[in-house]
Prior knowledge:
Number of domains: 1
Distance between the termini: 61 Å
Number of helices: 7
Largest sheet: 14 strands, antiparallel, barrel
CATH class: Mainly Beta
Order of helices and strands: HHHEEEEEEEEEEEEEHHHEEEEEH
Mean pLDDT: 88
CATH superfamily: monomeric porin ompg
Shape: globular
Amino acid sequence: xxxxxxxxxxxxxxxxxxxxxxxxxxxxxxxxxxxxxxxxxxxxxxxxxxxxxxxxxxxxxxxxxxxxxxxxxxxxxxxxxxxxxxxxxxxxxxxxxxxxxxxxxxxxxxxxxxxxxxxxxxxxxxxxxxxxxxxxxxxxxxxxxxxxxxxxxxxxxxxxxxxxxxxxxxxxxxxxxxxxxxxxxxxxxxxxxxxxxxxxxxxxxxxxxxxxxxxxxxxxxxxxxxxxxxxxxxxxxxxxxxxxxxxxxxxxxxxxxxxxxxxxxxxxxxxxxxxxxxxxxxxxxxxxxxxxxxxxxxxxxxxxxxxxxxxxxxxxxxxxxxxxxxxxxxxxxxxxxxxxxxxxxxxxxxxxxxxxxxxxxxxxxxxxxxxxxxxxx
Length: 377
């Protein structure tokens, strides 16, 4: 009994995608990629600040935003776990888990790693006559390691290597199907400078990260290949300590998919285009010209307030043009930091569409300062 693989694959990918294809407005020209789970914000701290994380101050989940930050961490070693139910307005069993770890080797070097797991819930498979064929639990994951190093007192760089596996229908007996595999790399830089202004301690920071530079992914043994979500992130932040108890950080980020627009070329040309060629072509291939290229830029902005370096309140806004996905939402969050652990929470408020699939999105992050824990033993 044969199963129409393409139909099932489309359904599963639509459920996994970050609402881009589902809620774009009239005449959209959305850039679609494989494994879109790599673009989902995994942690609650930056999730509460409008996804403006590449230039924000260092945190336990910097592996996703900019691993070059880890050399600026105050603690020598830490581990964090984030969890988020995903698209809860559509289904109740899709979730994203994110495990991170870092270790400063000395004053100028750090290593880090993360595991991202995206569970797509239970999928029922049928044949062309709607006869029940079984139930499977598709999943995707990415495992990466990074090395970071100070290049000067205020400037650092990092390289991350990533393995990606996407298994959308394993065990379902789909003819011609095979799980997708890909390899990718990130190249990131971070600048952080302490400033003394108006008798107050301030910090200016900026970061850039080119994520997921890697091979295309295929589910039919290489006959059809999709780009992975190569992304350019550029951002900055400014932190001001008002006094010994109160501080604010303001963060801004611009991001863009470095993936070619399929409508700008024939299907044969698109299939032959390689990842590096797609990166360069992505800057000048929009059918609508420069105006449409500007529409591809996503904007995130956020603010974080800390009281006594123990309690945090966060808020942010994320904007994506209606022709490129129409993700527009506010976010809010809170954090609690103790001696050996911290707990963060964030909530998302869509403003673009009623009954938006991202509505009620919550994220939770638990982190441990291993050095502080060891010193108390």
